[in-house]
Structure prediction request, 217 residues.
Amino acid sequence: MLKPIVFWGATGQAKVLHEFIGSVGYELVALFENNPEMSSPFPGVPLYYGTEGFARWEQERGADVGAHCLVAIGGSRGRTRLEIQRFLEAHSLEPAVAVHPTAFVAGNAVVSKGSQILANASVCAEAVLGEGCIINTASSVDHESILEDGVHVAPGATLAGCVFVGAHSLIGPGAVILPRVRVGRDCIVGAGAVVTKDVPDGKVVYGNPATIRRDNI
Prediction:
């Protein structure tokens, strides 16, 4: 029997998750979105707007019907993703861990609640993912790397062994982080960047080798 799950977010990330969520034991029963001009992209799955819509859904479903949840918001919005996840948890929804059937996750890796590992991605030996992380299509998190809460590793990015990435940071598509490099909190690593040295908190870096270009404000 499939377990009920809801997504907060109804655009691209929701479509990526919806494609495989049934194959890992879940049935999408509702969507939530802050944009009232949107309509549900999935026939038969209702879309509710904002916290008022969420309250209406709670009343409709009844207190005795449990559900899981995922926050389907990508990009550099890791902080927002975590805030929404905690809101949903406070309303008795359990964040799922979604691993695409084609992804590889080492048996001794740690993947925390709300994290999403997408098609052909790899999470290797003794890697640790915090809450609400996204390891996107064909990206790689190698051995003993540590990602704090809300990190997004975009499609095709590579984190070599023993990399550290601070909370809410975005590693852009195709970027490469060399071994034992630390990327701080609230950073953006640009697409295709090659990061050869540590990046302080709150910085935007890009290029080969990557250099600090501005603050992430």
